[in-house]
Amino acid sequence: MERLAGIDLDRLRSFQVLAAELHFTRAAARLHLTQPALSQQIRALERQLGTPLVERHARGCTLTPVGARVAAETGRLLAEADAAAARIAAAAQGTLRLAYTRSARGGRVDALVARFRAAYPQVEVLPSTGWTAPNVEGLLSGAIDAAFVRPPLDEPALTCLHVDSEELLLAVPADHPLAARRRIPRPAVAGLPAVMWPRENGPGMFDRTIAQVWPAGGFTLSRHEPDDEQLLRAVAEGTLIAAVPAGRARSLKLPGVRLRRFTDPIPTVDIALAYPTVSTNPAVHRLAALLRDSG
Question: Which ranges does the record mark as transmembrane (predicted)?
């Protein structure tokens, strides 16, 4: 089948339909062509191959032995061509190395990514998950293209777009005296032993949490845990309290833990999309545009 090289793919697609229908009128209708136009395409293909592919009859046509072979080869050839075209289109659309932050999944974050995937299905999204500080390092080093982070950030080289805000809740042991209250005033938590993740994981969020929950001081750090799930497990042991984002805390639903709201002013933390301001990746700017349009 060396003579298939250089053949117009549209002619092969037309022949593939004719081989399935074995009727010029029906094949032309499927292809949205006139019958004479289809006949011209088939004759041009036959001339290029140097042999008849179909035998025409009053009620239709049949494939010659060579035509049957061409039909079989055409199916594989067109499938490979379509796959190659999809790969080329994907390369043109780009790749997006996107990092999530461990404390924020679901809600507007996942909704934004879902909208992006639907709008740009050819973009290959390569997800990862990390704390804000490692995500920022990845952005600055070029290891990732965009990341969800917990602001505030002190990085002038990064653009940071607001995605959402969520309430901070107080997690207390189920038998703790504060579990009996509906709302917790700030003085009630001053001096109580608390568990928190290491500040270096996200300095901005760490400091903002302390400033809002313990504004007059009294933050008593008794233990570090690596993430929100482990914070809540530590609270369930019975002696520690923790300030945690509402979305993550409610989704975990750990036994032995009660979640309580604070009195006004309600403490909150933000989630943002960050990327290098000088990024030339089209996928990054498309994701950012979707976020801006949703605001």
Answer: none
CA distances (Å), origin 178, targets 25, 31, 166, 182, 267: 81, 72, 22, 8, 17
Give the tokens for residue 225. 């845990």
Q: Which two tokens stand for residue 220?
A: 């008593």
Give 134-172 pLDDT, tens digit per residue: 999 999 999 999 999 999 999 999 999 999 999 999 999
* CA atoms of 163 and 156, how far apart (whole Å): 19
49 membership: H or E segment, kind and range: helix 35-49
Q: How many Cα atoms sit within 13 Å of 198 on the Cβ side?
A: 6
Residues 201, 204, 208, CA angle at the centre, nearest 5°? 120
What totals of helices (H) and strands (E) does the chain contain, helices first? 10, 12
pTM of the model: 0.69
